[in-house]
Amino acid sequence: MTLQEIADFIGIDCQEKKEITGLNTLLDSNENQLTFLENKKYLSDLKNTKAAAVLVTEENSKEVPSSSIALICDEPYLMLAKISKLFAPNVIEMDGEKPLIGGGTKVMPNVYIGKNSVIGSDCTIMAGAFIGDNVTIGNNTIIYPNVTVYRDCSIGNDCIIHAGTVIGSDGFGFANTKDGKYIKIYQNGNVTIGNDIEIGANSTIDRAVFNSTIIEDGVRIDNLVHIGHNCKISRGSILVAQVGLSGSTTLHPYVVMGGQSATAGHLEIAPFTTIAARSGVTKTIHEPKKQWAGFPLFEHKQWLKLQGKISNLLK
Which of 174, 199, 219 is the last residue of a domain? Predict the structure, then answer.
């Protein structure tokens, strides 16, 4: 779409006919993409953006680089939500190539495989699985019954996806109007899953708003785990049952999270960190190779001392 068409859609005056191919973050945008700034803490990112245009308030419009066009509006985040619908892919593709299935792959009855999808060799796809359009699955991967893989996602080699897991469902993204109405932010990214990964039953991994939710090689995910949009789970990490990660959380290599632990969004956890069961991570953890517990979060040894003191108070 042209920038003028997009601006007309949200009621902004812009005569620029530059073609816009998609939406992206401030730092990841290229010269053919549209981005936005809502929060002032990202002003430094705005100054370095390469985006063709930026949805921005008048107050912050002076910080838009000369290479970008400022689309001035009162509520950039809300405008982004409305525009995201314009770039959302079809729910189901009616046109396209039949799926390609490699040698030695076994596909049980009652499996759906979408257009343009590719499944490698020596895989097993069990009954009730749904594999959407433009999905790629590597070699020697097992998909158990009733697994759902939404369109545009990818799964690597030597993976095991247990029953009922959903990969690529929409992340939880909404913008509020002034009267409280929720406007959906269409999740136009995907999920990419590496090699040698096992995902337990009934877990959910949300697709990204832009770009990808990423699960790197060697990760182990237990049953009933939820991973929000745009998270990155680095190699060798372990997530135990009922872990919940809010959007844009990054786990660096070999992080272990115990059962029912959780994170707030937009934070990072250092390599070789252990988070004890039922702990809540609300801030970035910078120092690697430490153990943490509780809510609010303490180093594990301190948390044990605190529990001991509390127990003594009850005697």
Answer: 219
Judge residue 90's burial from the number of C-beta atoms within 10 Å of its C-beta, 0-12 exposed, 13-18 middle, 19 or more buried: exposed
Q: Is 266 a catalytic residue?
A: no
Of the residues 162, 226, 229, 252, only one is catalytic, namely: 229
| Digit-coded pLDDT (tens) for 256-271 | 999 999 999 999 999 9
| Judgement on whether residues 103 and 164 belong to the same structural domain of the protein | yes
For the chain, the domain total comes to 3
Integer angstrom CA distances of residue 223 from 87, 122, 145, 240: 33, 25, 15, 7
Is residue 166 included in any domain, yes or no?
yes
Check if the beta carbon of residue 250 is closer than 8 Å to that of residue 270: no
Q: Is 265 exposed, middle or buried (0-12, 13-18, 19+ CB in 10 A)?
A: middle
pTM above 0.70, yes or no: yes
- In the block, tokens 């069990």 appear at 126
Is the per-residue pLDDT at 171 higher than 90?
Answer: yes
Is residue 184 located within the same domain as residue 243?
A: no
Does 311 map to a domain?
yes
Residue after which a domain boundary falls, among 70, 87, 104: 87
